Amino acid sequence: MQSLTVVKIGGKVLEDDRQLSSALADFAAVEGPKILVHGGGKRSDELCLQLGIEPKMVEGRRITDAPTLEIVTMVYAGLLNKKVTGLLQSAGCNAIGLSGADGNAILAHKRAKGQIDYGFAGDIDEVNSGMLTALLNTGLVPVLCSITHDGKGQLLNTNADTIATVTAAAMAANYRVTLKFCFEKAGVLRDPADDAAVIPMLNQADYARFREEGVINAGMIPKIDNALAAKRGGVNKVLICGVKAISPAATQNGTEICL
Amino acid sequence: MQSLTVVKIGGKVLEDDRQLSSALADFAAVEGPKILVHGGGKRSDELCLQLGIEPKMVEGRRITDAPTLEIVTMVYAGLLNKKVTGLLQSAGCNAIGLSGADGNAILAHKRAKGQIDYGFAGDIDEVNSGMLTALLNTGLVPVLCSITHDGKGQLLNTNADTIATVTAAAMAANYRVTLKFCFEKAGVLRDPADDAAVIPMLNQADYARFREEGVINAGMIPKIDNALAAKRGGVNKVLICGVKAISPAATQNGTEICL
User: Fold this and answer.
1) Which of A36, A87, B78, B150 is placed for a possible disulfide with A74 were both Cys, Cβ 3.0 to 4.6 Å?
2) Which of B82, B131, B149 sits opposite A73 (nearest CB)?
Protein backbone atom coordinates (compact mmCIF):
# COMPACT_ATOMS: atom_id res chain seq x y z
CA MET A 1 0.00 0.00 0.00
CA GLN A 2 1.36 3.43 -0.99
CA SER A 3 2.04 6.03 1.70
CA LEU A 4 0.15 9.32 1.90
CA THR A 5 0.92 12.24 4.19
CA VAL A 6 -1.90 14.55 5.32
CA VAL A 7 -0.79 17.72 7.11
CA LYS A 8 -3.09 20.19 8.80
CA ILE A 9 -1.78 23.66 9.56
CA GLY A 10 -3.69 26.03 11.77
CA GLY A 11 -4.60 29.66 11.67
CA LYS A 12 -1.64 30.94 13.70
CA VAL A 13 0.94 29.71 11.13
CA LEU A 14 -1.01 31.48 8.39
CA GLU A 15 -0.74 34.76 10.27
CA ASP A 16 3.08 34.80 10.29
CA ASP A 17 4.63 35.06 6.80
CA ARG A 18 8.06 33.78 7.85
CA GLN A 19 6.71 30.79 9.76
CA LEU A 20 4.31 30.04 6.92
CA SER A 21 7.03 30.06 4.24
CA SER A 22 9.20 27.80 6.35
CA ALA A 23 6.33 25.36 7.06
CA LEU A 24 5.39 25.26 3.38
CA ALA A 25 9.01 24.67 2.31
CA ASP A 26 9.07 21.72 4.74
CA PHE A 27 5.76 20.45 3.36
CA ALA A 28 7.11 20.79 -0.21
CA ALA A 29 10.05 18.56 0.82
CA VAL A 30 7.78 15.72 1.98
CA GLU A 31 8.13 12.87 -0.52
CA GLY A 32 5.30 10.95 -2.12
CA PRO A 33 1.61 11.81 -2.38
CA LYS A 34 0.43 14.37 0.15
CA ILE A 35 -2.48 16.64 1.04
CA LEU A 36 -2.45 19.91 2.98
CA VAL A 37 -5.43 21.15 4.98
CA HIS A 38 -5.41 24.68 6.35
CA GLY A 39 -7.46 26.60 8.86
CA GLY A 40 -8.51 30.19 8.84
CA GLY A 41 -6.88 32.35 11.42
CA LYS A 42 -7.81 35.80 12.56
CA ARG A 43 -7.99 37.42 9.14
CA SER A 44 -11.68 36.60 8.71
CA ASP A 45 -12.48 38.07 12.13
CA GLU A 46 -10.57 41.22 11.20
CA LEU A 47 -12.47 41.49 7.93
CA CYS A 48 -15.79 40.94 9.73
CA LEU A 49 -14.96 43.80 12.09
CA GLN A 50 -13.82 46.07 9.23
CA LEU A 51 -17.18 45.42 7.55
CA GLY A 52 -19.13 46.02 10.75
CA ILE A 53 -20.03 42.37 11.35
CA GLU A 54 -19.42 41.19 14.91
CA PRO A 55 -17.79 37.69 14.87
CA LYS A 56 -20.09 35.40 16.84
CA MET A 57 -18.63 32.44 18.75
CA VAL A 58 -20.36 29.97 21.07
CA GLU A 59 -18.11 27.59 23.03
CA GLY A 60 -15.23 28.19 20.63
CA ARG A 61 -17.34 27.52 17.55
CA ARG A 62 -18.16 30.17 15.03
CA ILE A 63 -21.77 31.04 14.23
CA THR A 64 -21.79 31.40 10.46
CA ASP A 65 -24.59 33.72 9.39
CA ALA A 66 -24.94 34.64 5.69
CA PRO A 67 -22.60 37.70 5.71
CA THR A 68 -20.03 35.73 7.74
CA LEU A 69 -20.19 32.84 5.25
CA GLU A 70 -19.33 35.28 2.44
CA ILE A 71 -16.38 36.57 4.44
CA VAL A 72 -14.97 33.16 5.36
CA THR A 73 -15.40 32.03 1.74
CA MET A 74 -13.41 35.08 0.61
CA VAL A 75 -10.69 34.68 3.23
CA TYR A 76 -10.34 30.86 3.42
CA ALA A 77 -11.01 29.83 -0.20
CA GLY A 78 -9.68 33.05 -1.77
CA LEU A 79 -6.99 34.93 0.10
CA LEU A 80 -5.44 32.16 2.21
CA ASN A 81 -5.93 29.16 -0.08
CA LYS A 82 -4.41 31.00 -3.05
CA LYS A 83 -1.58 32.45 -0.98
CA VAL A 84 -0.67 28.97 0.28
CA THR A 85 -1.02 27.48 -3.21
CA GLY A 86 1.14 30.20 -4.79
CA LEU A 87 3.83 29.79 -2.11
CA LEU A 88 3.85 26.01 -2.52
CA GLN A 89 4.17 26.43 -6.30
CA SER A 90 7.16 28.70 -5.71
CA ALA A 91 8.67 25.96 -3.52
CA GLY A 92 8.37 23.45 -6.37
CA CYS A 93 5.25 21.71 -5.05
CA ASN A 94 2.47 21.36 -7.64
CA ALA A 95 -0.32 22.47 -5.30
CA ILE A 96 -3.96 22.78 -6.31
CA GLY A 97 -6.19 24.72 -3.92
CA LEU A 98 -9.63 23.28 -3.30
CA SER A 99 -12.77 24.04 -1.39
CA GLY A 100 -15.19 21.21 -0.78
CA ALA A 101 -17.21 22.35 -3.80
CA ASP A 102 -14.27 21.90 -6.18
CA GLY A 103 -14.56 18.51 -7.86
CA ASN A 104 -17.18 17.79 -5.17
CA ALA A 105 -14.24 17.23 -2.81
CA ILE A 106 -16.24 17.42 0.43
CA LEU A 107 -19.98 17.00 0.60
CA ALA A 108 -21.58 18.24 3.82
CA HIS A 109 -24.98 19.20 5.17
CA LYS A 110 -26.03 22.27 7.10
CA ARG A 111 -25.92 21.44 10.79
CA ALA A 112 -29.43 20.96 12.16
CA LYS A 113 -30.57 23.67 14.56
CA GLY A 114 -30.31 22.41 18.10
CA GLN A 115 -30.15 24.63 21.14
CA ILE A 116 -27.67 26.66 19.14
CA ASP A 117 -28.18 27.67 15.49
CA TYR A 118 -24.69 27.52 13.99
CA GLY A 119 -25.98 28.98 10.71
CA PHE A 120 -24.07 27.85 7.61
CA ALA A 121 -21.90 25.33 9.45
CA GLY A 122 -21.38 22.11 7.52
CA ASP A 123 -21.10 18.61 8.97
CA ILE A 124 -19.29 16.31 6.56
CA ASP A 125 -21.14 13.50 4.77
CA GLU A 126 -18.42 12.34 2.41
CA VAL A 127 -14.91 13.09 1.22
CA ASN A 128 -14.43 12.36 -2.50
CA SER A 129 -11.38 10.15 -2.14
CA GLY A 130 -11.67 9.04 -5.77
CA MET A 131 -11.29 12.59 -7.09
CA LEU A 132 -8.45 13.36 -4.64
CA THR A 133 -6.68 10.15 -5.72
CA ALA A 134 -7.09 11.13 -9.38
CA LEU A 135 -5.44 14.51 -8.64
CA LEU A 136 -2.63 12.80 -6.68
CA ASN A 137 -2.09 10.38 -9.58
CA THR A 138 -1.64 13.39 -11.88
CA GLY A 139 1.15 14.64 -9.59
CA LEU A 140 -0.99 17.36 -8.04
CA VAL A 141 -1.00 18.17 -4.32
CA PRO A 142 -4.48 19.05 -3.02
CA VAL A 143 -4.64 22.00 -0.60
CA LEU A 144 -7.99 21.96 1.18
CA CYS A 145 -9.49 24.98 2.88
CA SER A 146 -12.30 24.72 5.39
CA ILE A 147 -15.23 25.50 3.07
CA THR A 148 -17.49 22.60 2.07
CA HIS A 149 -20.75 22.41 0.09
CA ASP A 150 -24.07 20.59 0.19
CA GLY A 151 -24.24 19.65 -3.49
CA LYS A 152 -27.26 21.93 -3.91
CA GLY A 153 -25.32 25.15 -4.46
CA GLN A 154 -24.87 26.06 -0.79
CA LEU A 155 -21.34 26.60 0.55
CA LEU A 156 -20.77 25.73 4.22
CA ASN A 157 -18.12 26.47 6.84
CA THR A 158 -16.49 23.37 8.35
CA ASN A 159 -13.82 22.99 11.02
CA ALA A 160 -10.39 22.38 9.43
CA ASP A 161 -9.32 19.75 12.01
CA THR A 162 -12.46 17.79 11.16
CA ILE A 163 -11.74 18.10 7.43
CA ALA A 164 -8.22 16.74 8.00
CA THR A 165 -9.60 13.87 10.10
CA VAL A 166 -12.33 12.79 7.68
CA THR A 167 -10.08 13.25 4.63
CA ALA A 168 -7.27 11.17 6.16
CA ALA A 169 -9.75 8.44 7.15
CA ALA A 170 -11.35 8.39 3.68
CA MET A 171 -7.93 8.10 2.02
CA ALA A 172 -6.92 5.32 4.45
CA ALA A 173 -8.97 2.84 2.40
CA ASN A 174 -6.31 3.01 -0.32
CA TYR A 175 -3.21 4.49 1.31
CA ARG A 176 -1.08 3.97 4.38
CA VAL A 177 -1.84 7.43 5.83
CA THR A 178 0.19 9.56 8.23
CA LEU A 179 -1.79 12.51 9.59
CA LYS A 180 -0.06 15.44 11.30
CA PHE A 181 -2.12 18.04 13.16
CA CYS A 182 0.29 20.96 13.43
CA PHE A 183 -0.36 23.74 15.90
CA GLU A 184 1.54 26.33 17.91
CA LYS A 185 2.92 23.92 20.53
CA ALA A 186 5.36 21.04 19.89
CA GLY A 187 2.77 18.43 20.92
CA VAL A 188 0.36 17.53 23.72
CA LEU A 189 1.97 18.88 26.89
CA ARG A 190 2.01 17.16 30.26
CA ASP A 191 2.24 20.64 31.76
CA PRO A 192 0.65 23.47 29.75
CA ALA A 193 3.20 25.89 31.22
CA ASP A 194 6.19 23.85 30.03
CA ASP A 195 6.61 23.75 26.26
CA ALA A 196 9.26 21.04 26.59
CA ALA A 197 6.92 18.64 28.42
CA VAL A 198 5.70 16.93 25.24
CA ILE A 199 4.01 13.58 25.79
CA PRO A 200 5.62 11.36 23.10
CA MET A 201 2.74 8.90 22.92
CA LEU A 202 -0.83 9.13 24.17
CA ASN A 203 -3.39 6.36 24.06
CA GLN A 204 -7.09 6.38 24.95
CA ALA A 205 -6.55 5.08 28.48
CA ASP A 206 -3.86 7.69 29.29
CA TYR A 207 -6.01 10.38 27.70
CA ALA A 208 -9.01 9.44 29.90
CA ARG A 209 -6.80 9.50 32.99
CA PHE A 210 -5.11 12.80 32.08
CA ARG A 211 -8.51 14.38 31.42
CA GLU A 212 -9.73 13.24 34.80
CA GLU A 213 -6.61 14.61 36.47
CA GLY A 214 -6.98 17.89 34.54
CA VAL A 215 -3.46 17.50 33.16
CA ILE A 216 -4.45 18.23 29.56
CA ASN A 217 -5.40 21.74 28.51
CA ALA A 218 -9.13 21.98 27.69
CA GLY A 219 -8.29 23.49 24.27
CA MET A 220 -6.55 20.23 23.32
CA ILE A 221 -9.61 18.04 23.85
CA PRO A 222 -11.29 18.52 20.42
CA LYS A 223 -7.91 18.04 18.73
CA ILE A 224 -7.22 14.77 20.54
CA ASP A 225 -10.78 13.62 19.89
CA ASN A 226 -10.22 14.27 16.17
CA ALA A 227 -6.90 12.42 16.30
CA LEU A 228 -8.57 9.40 17.95
CA ALA A 229 -11.38 9.52 15.37
CA ALA A 230 -8.73 9.40 12.62
CA LYS A 231 -7.11 6.35 14.24
CA ARG A 232 -10.49 4.63 14.55
CA GLY A 233 -11.06 5.55 10.87
CA GLY A 234 -8.03 3.51 9.86
CA VAL A 235 -5.31 6.17 9.69
CA ASN A 236 -1.98 4.47 10.25
CA LYS A 237 -0.17 7.14 12.24
CA VAL A 238 -1.57 10.30 13.83
CA LEU A 239 0.59 13.03 15.35
CA ILE A 240 -0.28 16.22 17.20
CA CYS A 241 2.80 18.35 16.71
CA GLY A 242 4.42 21.68 15.92
CA VAL A 243 5.10 22.91 12.38
CA LYS A 244 8.73 21.86 12.86
CA ALA A 245 7.52 18.25 12.69
CA ILE A 246 6.35 18.70 9.05
CA SER A 247 9.88 18.30 7.71
CA PRO A 248 10.82 14.77 6.68
CA ALA A 249 14.09 15.40 8.57
CA ALA A 250 12.29 16.47 11.76
CA THR A 251 13.73 15.36 15.07
CA GLN A 252 10.74 16.66 17.05
CA ASN A 253 7.79 14.45 16.24
CA GLY A 254 5.26 15.71 18.76
CA THR A 255 2.71 13.40 20.30
CA GLU A 256 1.67 10.19 18.60
CA ILE A 257 -1.97 9.37 19.30
CA CYS A 258 -2.82 5.68 19.69
CA LEU A 259 -5.98 3.71 20.43
CA MET B 1 -9.64 15.76 -32.91
CA GLN B 2 -11.95 16.01 -29.90
CA SER B 3 -14.11 19.10 -29.42
CA LEU B 4 -13.69 21.47 -26.47
CA THR B 5 -15.96 24.36 -25.54
CA VAL B 6 -14.53 27.37 -23.70
CA VAL B 7 -17.09 29.85 -22.37
CA LYS B 8 -16.28 33.20 -20.83
CA ILE B 9 -18.93 34.90 -18.72
CA GLY B 10 -18.56 38.48 -17.61
CA GLY B 11 -19.11 40.40 -14.45
CA LYS B 12 -22.68 41.50 -15.16
CA VAL B 13 -24.00 37.90 -15.27
CA LEU B 14 -22.33 37.23 -11.93
CA GLU B 15 -24.21 40.13 -10.37
CA ASP B 16 -27.67 38.73 -11.16
CA ASP B 17 -28.44 35.45 -9.34
CA ARG B 18 -31.30 34.44 -11.67
CA GLN B 19 -29.34 35.11 -14.85
CA LEU B 20 -26.28 33.37 -13.37
CA SER B 21 -28.19 30.21 -12.45
CA SER B 22 -29.74 30.06 -15.91
CA ALA B 23 -26.38 30.61 -17.66
CA LEU B 24 -24.71 27.94 -15.51
CA ALA B 25 -27.55 25.45 -16.16
CA ASP B 26 -27.00 26.04 -19.90
CA PHE B 27 -23.25 25.59 -19.47
CA ALA B 28 -23.84 22.36 -17.51
CA ALA B 29 -25.87 21.08 -20.47
CA VAL B 30 -23.00 21.58 -22.96
CA GLU B 31 -21.72 18.13 -23.95
CA GLY B 32 -18.09 17.04 -24.01
CA PRO B 33 -15.05 18.61 -22.41
CA LYS B 34 -15.48 22.26 -21.47
CA ILE B 35 -13.89 25.10 -19.54
CA LEU B 36 -15.57 28.13 -17.97
CA VAL B 37 -13.75 31.45 -17.46
CA HIS B 38 -15.38 34.14 -15.36
CA GLY B 39 -14.78 37.81 -14.79
CA GLY B 40 -15.16 39.84 -11.66
CA GLY B 41 -18.02 42.27 -11.67
CA LYS B 42 -18.70 45.12 -9.32
CA ARG B 43 -18.43 43.18 -6.10
CA SER B 44 -14.71 43.83 -5.74
CA ASP B 45 -15.26 47.57 -6.28
CA GLU B 46 -17.96 47.55 -3.62
CA LEU B 47 -15.66 45.73 -1.20
CA CYS B 48 -12.83 48.18 -1.94
CA LEU B 49 -15.16 51.07 -1.11
CA GLN B 50 -16.44 49.36 2.06
CA LEU B 51 -12.82 48.98 3.17
CA GLY B 52 -11.95 52.57 2.28
CA ILE B 53 -9.88 51.74 -0.81
CA GLU B 54 -10.74 53.84 -3.85
CA PRO B 55 -10.88 51.61 -6.99
CA LYS B 56 -8.35 53.02 -9.45
CA MET B 57 -8.96 52.66 -13.19
CA VAL B 58 -6.94 54.06 -16.11
CA GLU B 59 -8.48 53.70 -19.60
CA GLY B 60 -10.81 50.96 -18.39
CA ARG B 61 -8.02 48.96 -16.78
CA ARG B 62 -7.75 48.45 -13.07
CA ILE B 63 -4.66 49.56 -11.17
CA THR B 64 -3.99 46.68 -8.80
CA ASP B 65 -2.09 47.93 -5.75
CA ALA B 66 -1.35 45.50 -2.89
CA PRO B 67 -4.61 46.02 -0.92
CA THR B 68 -6.63 45.79 -4.17
CA LEU B 69 -4.88 42.52 -5.08
CA GLU B 70 -5.99 41.05 -1.75
CA ILE B 71 -9.54 42.14 -2.42
CA VAL B 72 -9.73 40.80 -5.99
CA THR B 73 -8.16 37.53 -4.80
CA MET B 74 -10.86 37.26 -2.13
CA VAL B 75 -13.71 38.15 -4.48
CA TYR B 76 -12.65 36.45 -7.73
CA ALA B 77 -10.89 33.31 -6.42
CA GLY B 78 -12.96 33.01 -3.23
CA LEU B 79 -16.50 34.37 -3.31
CA LEU B 80 -17.30 34.22 -7.04
CA ASN B 81 -15.25 31.18 -8.09
CA LYS B 82 -16.69 29.05 -5.29
CA LYS B 83 -20.23 30.32 -5.84
CA VAL B 84 -20.01 29.41 -9.55
CA THR B 85 -18.41 26.04 -8.75
CA GLY B 86 -21.04 25.20 -6.13
CA LEU B 87 -23.88 26.17 -8.49
CA LEU B 88 -22.39 24.10 -11.33
CA GLN B 89 -22.05 21.13 -8.98
CA SER B 90 -25.73 21.50 -8.08
CA ALA B 91 -26.50 21.47 -11.83
CA GLY B 92 -24.71 18.13 -12.21
CA CYS B 93 -21.52 19.58 -13.69
CA ASN B 94 -18.32 18.37 -11.97
CA ALA B 95 -16.71 21.82 -11.78
CA ILE B 96 -13.33 22.52 -10.21
CA GLY B 97 -12.55 26.16 -9.53
CA LEU B 98 -9.03 27.32 -10.30
CA SER B 99 -6.88 30.39 -10.06
CA GLY B 100 -3.76 30.50 -12.19
CA ALA B 101 -1.73 29.34 -9.17
CA ASP B 102 -3.72 26.10 -8.84
CA GLY B 103 -1.83 23.32 -10.59
CA ASN B 104 0.25 26.15 -12.10
CA ALA B 105 -2.70 26.70 -14.47
CA ILE B 106 -1.63 30.14 -15.70
CA LEU B 107 1.86 31.50 -15.36
CA ALA B 108 2.18 35.26 -15.79
CA HIS B 109 4.60 38.07 -15.06
CA LYS B 110 3.98 41.41 -13.41
CA ARG B 111 3.43 43.97 -16.16
CA ALA B 112 6.49 46.19 -16.58
CA LYS B 113 6.01 49.78 -15.45
CA GLY B 114 5.51 51.96 -18.49
CA GLN B 115 3.90 55.39 -18.42
CA ILE B 116 1.31 53.75 -16.19
CA ASP B 117 2.15 51.46 -13.26
CA TYR B 118 -0.62 48.86 -13.27
CA GLY B 119 0.66 47.36 -10.01
CA PHE B 120 0.02 43.63 -9.61
CA ALA B 121 -1.37 43.16 -13.11
CA GLY B 122 -0.26 39.93 -14.75
CA ASP B 123 0.52 39.41 -18.44
CA ILE B 124 0.25 35.74 -19.35
CA ASP B 125 3.35 33.71 -20.23
CA GLU B 126 1.83 30.25 -20.44
CA VAL B 127 -1.36 28.31 -19.90
CA ASN B 128 -0.75 24.80 -18.55
CA SER B 129 -2.75 22.93 -21.17
CA GLY B 130 -1.32 19.59 -20.00
CA MET B 131 -2.71 20.00 -16.49
CA LEU B 132 -6.08 21.27 -17.80
CA THR B 133 -6.24 18.28 -20.17
CA ALA B 134 -5.47 15.91 -17.27
CA LEU B 135 -8.38 17.43 -15.31
CA LEU B 136 -10.70 17.17 -18.34
CA ASN B 137 -9.67 13.52 -18.81
CA THR B 138 -10.72 12.88 -15.19
CA GLY B 139 -14.18 14.24 -16.05
CA LEU B 140 -13.61 17.54 -14.25
CA VAL B 141 -14.68 20.92 -15.64
CA PRO B 142 -12.14 23.68 -14.93
CA VAL B 143 -13.62 27.02 -13.86
CA LEU B 144 -10.95 29.71 -14.17
CA CYS B 145 -11.09 33.01 -12.36
CA SER B 146 -8.98 35.98 -13.36
CA ILE B 147 -6.15 35.56 -10.84
CA THR B 148 -2.81 34.30 -12.17
CA HIS B 149 0.62 33.83 -10.53
CA ASP B 150 4.28 34.34 -11.36
CA GLY B 151 5.57 30.98 -10.07
CA LYS B 152 7.51 32.83 -7.36
CA GLY B 153 4.66 33.13 -4.87
CA GLN B 154 3.15 36.34 -6.24
CA LEU B 155 -0.50 36.34 -7.29
CA LEU B 156 -1.47 38.68 -10.13
CA ASN B 157 -4.68 40.15 -11.54
CA THR B 158 -5.30 39.34 -15.22
CA ASN B 159 -8.13 40.31 -17.56
CA ALA B 160 -10.66 37.46 -17.88
CA ASP B 161 -11.17 37.94 -21.66
CA THR B 162 -7.41 37.55 -22.12
CA ILE B 163 -7.41 34.41 -19.95
CA ALA B 164 -10.20 32.93 -22.11
CA THR B 165 -8.31 33.82 -25.29
CA VAL B 166 -4.93 32.42 -24.26
CA THR B 167 -6.49 29.32 -22.67
CA ALA B 168 -8.57 28.54 -25.77
CA ALA B 169 -5.51 29.03 -28.02
CA ALA B 170 -3.32 26.81 -25.80
CA MET B 171 -5.95 24.04 -25.83
CA ALA B 172 -6.32 24.36 -29.64
CA ALA B 173 -3.12 22.34 -30.08
CA ASN B 174 -5.03 19.23 -28.98
CA TYR B 175 -8.71 20.06 -29.34
CA ARG B 176 -11.08 21.51 -31.91
CA VAL B 177 -12.00 24.53 -29.75
CA THR B 178 -15.14 26.67 -29.79
CA LEU B 179 -14.75 29.86 -27.73
CA LYS B 180 -17.76 31.92 -26.67
CA PHE B 181 -17.27 35.37 -25.17
CA CYS B 182 -20.61 36.01 -23.47
CA PHE B 183 -21.58 39.51 -22.45
CA GLU B 184 -24.69 41.61 -21.86
CA LYS B 185 -25.58 42.10 -25.56
CA ALA B 186 -26.57 39.36 -28.02
CA GLY B 187 -23.47 39.98 -30.17
CA VAL B 188 -21.53 42.74 -31.94
CA LEU B 189 -24.14 45.30 -32.92
CA ARG B 190 -24.25 47.22 -36.18
CA ASP B 191 -26.09 49.94 -34.26
CA PRO B 192 -25.29 50.19 -30.52
CA ALA B 193 -28.82 51.55 -29.93
CA ASP B 194 -30.49 48.53 -31.55
CA ASP B 195 -30.03 45.28 -29.62
CA ALA B 196 -31.49 43.31 -32.54
CA ALA B 197 -28.86 44.57 -35.01
CA VAL B 198 -26.45 41.68 -34.36
CA ILE B 199 -23.77 41.24 -37.05
CA PRO B 200 -23.82 37.45 -37.66
CA MET B 201 -20.26 37.27 -38.97
CA LEU B 202 -17.39 39.72 -38.70
CA ASN B 203 -14.00 39.34 -40.38
CA GLN B 204 -10.87 41.45 -40.04
CA ALA B 205 -11.60 43.51 -43.16
CA ASP B 206 -15.17 44.33 -42.06
CA TYR B 207 -13.91 45.08 -38.56
CA ALA B 208 -11.32 47.56 -39.90
CA ARG B 209 -13.97 49.25 -42.05
CA PHE B 210 -16.55 49.38 -39.22
CA ARG B 211 -13.97 50.83 -36.86
CA GLU B 212 -13.13 53.51 -39.40
CA GLU B 213 -16.81 54.31 -39.86
CA GLY B 214 -17.29 54.41 -36.08
CA VAL B 215 -20.05 51.78 -36.35
CA ILE B 216 -18.66 49.59 -33.59
CA ASN B 217 -18.91 50.71 -29.98
CA ALA B 218 -15.46 51.54 -28.55
CA GLY B 219 -16.07 49.15 -25.61
CA MET B 220 -16.23 46.26 -28.09
CA ILE B 221 -12.75 46.82 -29.49
CA PRO B 222 -10.69 44.90 -26.87
CA LYS B 223 -13.21 42.05 -27.02
CA ILE B 224 -12.99 41.77 -30.82
CA ASP B 225 -9.19 42.06 -30.64
CA ASN B 226 -9.16 39.13 -28.19
CA ALA B 227 -11.50 37.16 -30.45
CA LEU B 228 -9.20 37.74 -33.44
CA ALA B 229 -6.16 36.77 -31.35
CA ALA B 230 -7.94 33.51 -30.47
CA LYS B 231 -8.59 32.81 -34.16
CA ARG B 232 -4.96 33.54 -35.02
CA GLY B 233 -4.01 31.21 -32.13
CA GLY B 234 -5.78 28.32 -33.85
CA VAL B 235 -9.20 28.37 -32.17
CA ASN B 236 -11.68 26.79 -34.54
CA LYS B 237 -14.73 28.93 -33.86
CA VAL B 238 -15.01 32.19 -31.92
CA LEU B 239 -18.29 33.84 -31.00
CA ILE B 240 -19.10 37.10 -29.25
CA CYS B 241 -22.58 36.53 -27.91
CA GLY B 242 -25.12 36.80 -25.13
CA VAL B 243 -25.46 34.25 -22.33
CA LYS B 244 -28.44 32.78 -24.19
CA ALA B 245 -25.96 31.45 -26.76
CA ILE B 246 -24.31 29.17 -24.15
CA SER B 247 -27.07 26.58 -24.46
CA PRO B 248 -26.36 23.79 -26.94
CA ALA B 249 -29.97 24.36 -28.14
CA ALA B 250 -29.41 28.11 -28.67
CA THR B 251 -30.99 29.73 -31.69
CA GLN B 252 -29.18 33.05 -31.13
CA ASN B 253 -25.51 32.51 -31.84
CA GLY B 254 -24.25 36.06 -31.69
CA THR B 255 -21.39 37.21 -33.89
CA GLU B 256 -18.88 34.77 -35.31
CA ILE B 257 -15.42 36.33 -35.61
CA CYS B 258 -13.35 35.30 -38.62
CA LEU B 259 -9.91 36.18 -39.96
Assistant:
1) B78
2) B82
Residue-wise pLDDT tens digits, B65-99: 999 999 999 999 999 999 999 999 999 999 999 99
State the nearest Cα–Cα gap between B101 and chain A, in angstroms. Answer: 5
A44, A89, A99, A135, best to mutate vs chain B, most B CBs in 10 Å? A89
Question: Is residue A37 scored above 90 in pLDDT?
Answer: yes
Task: Test B77 with A73 for CB contact under 8 angstroms.
Answer: no
SS3 of chain B: CCEEEEEEECHHHHCCHHHHHHHHHHHHCCCCCEEEEECCCCHHHHHHHHCCCCCCEECCEECECHHHHHHHHHHHHHHHHHHHHHHHHHCCCCEEEECCCHHHCEEEEECCCCCCCCECEEEEEEECHHHHHHHHHCCCEEEECCEEECCCCCEEECCHHHHHHHHHHHHCCCCEEEEEEEECCCCCECCCCCCCCECCEEEHHHHHHHHHHCCCCHHHHHHHHHHHHHHHCCCCEEEEEEHHHCCCCCCCCCEEEEC
Query: Where does the pLDDT of residue B214 fall: very low under 50, low under 70, confident under 90, or very high at 90 and above?
Result: confident
CB contact under 8 A, B87 and A154: no
Give the model confidence (pLDDT) of A106-158 as tens digits.
Answer: 999 999 988 899 999 999 999 999 999 999 999 999 999 999 999 999 999 99
Domains of chain B with bracketed CATH: 3-258 (3.40.1160.10)
Cβ neighbours of B50 in A, within 8 Å? 50-51
The answer to whether the Cβ–Cβ distance between A103 and B87 falls below 8 Å is no
Nearest chain B alpha carbon to A152: B90
Q: ipTM of this model?
A: 0.96
Comparing A164-168, A191-195, B1-5, the range with the smallest average pLDDT is A191-195
Mean pLDDT value across residues B50-68: 87
- Model pTM above 0.95: yes
Chain A residue set in contact with B, beta carbons under 8 Å? 50-51, 70, 73-79, 81-83, 85-87, 89-90, 94-99, 101-104, 131, 134-135, 138, 140, 147, 149, 151-155
d(CA B159, CA A168): 38
> Can you tell me the distance from the alpha carbon of A3 to that of A30, in angstroms, rounded to the nearest whole number?
11
State the average pLDDT over residues B99-113.
Answer: 97
How far is the alpha carbon of A53 from chain B, nearest alpha carbon, in Å?
Answer: 12
**Which residues from chain A sit within 8 angstroms of residue B41, using beta carbons?**
none
Evaluate if residue B11 carries a pLDDT over 90.
no
pLDDT in tens, A151-161: 999 999 999 99
**CB-CB under 8 Å, B90 with A152:** yes
